[in-house]
Amino acid sequence: PPFTDNGGPGAPDGETYPYPLEFVNLVGTSCDDEQEKWPSAECFEKHSGGNATHYPDYLEPGHGSPHYCSKDAKAADVNNDWCPYIFFGDMRGRYRHPHIAFAAVETWLANKAGVGTCGPTWDDNDGANYPQTPNDNSVAFPKMEAINSDDPKQPKVTMSEGKASFHWPGDEGAKRKAVPGEFVIEKYIMSTTITS
Question: Most buried among 20, 61, 77, 192, using CB within 10 Å?
């Protein structure tokens, strides 16, 4: 996992190299539980020098993602990816994106191997037509709301009959994409025994 020294890209001899660690939302008991599985897991206590009392009151501490969701959002079962990266403590605004570095190296290597086919940068390849239309490949977010003026927005959650719900899609719409091809949407199963 990208929050431990275990795993990461490997060499032919089986040795692995750790990814740059993400600033994951693990703290207190959730940190202890994760470190039982992955002893080198880096938690909030280490990467930001704090503990759960340093979290803004409305956040759900320790749900185990590089995203930091509100308690209401987690109660509504919001996808963690819709919540902001770390925005408080020593590491605020310093989320690492190692996958972008690996993609840049992959693009560079592809250009060296296929000079006439692959451009030297992402903007010369798939990014040349970004966002692609009509299929822009982006993800529709839920409705977002400000919790306070200083923090990033969180997914909007309302309570109805004691149940938390988030509002999807948000202001951008569903971003439905056309999917070319032929698909089976009904299937009939018949006996394969032929009688005469």
Answer: 61
Helices (H) then strands (E): counts for the chain:
4, 4
How far does the chain reach from its first CA to its final CA, in angstroms?
Answer: 60
User: Beta partners for 144?
Assistant: 155
Please state the three-class secondary structure of 70-117 as a single string: EHHHHHCCCCHHHCCECCCCCCCCCCCCHHHHHHHHHHHHHHHHCCCC
Q: For the range 73-80, what are the long-range contacts, defined as Cβ-Cβ under 8 Å and sequence gap of 24 or more?
A: 73/154, 73/155, 73/157, 73/166, 75/157, 75/164, 76/155, 76/157, 76/164, 76/165, 76/166, 77/164, 77/166, 78/142, 78/155, 78/157, 78/166
Note the pTM of the prediction, 2 decimals. 0.68
Rounded to an integer, what distance in angstroms lies between the CA atom of residue 177 and that of residue 168? 16
Element (H, E) at 159: strand 157-160
Whether omega for the bond prior to residue 66 falls within 30 degrees of 0, making it cis, is no
How far does Cα 50 stand from its chain's mean position?
A: 24
Q: pLDDT per residue over 112-145, tens digit each?
A: 998 888 888 877 776 666 666 655 667 788 999 9
How far apart (Å, rounded) are the C-alpha atoms in residues 154 and 27? 20
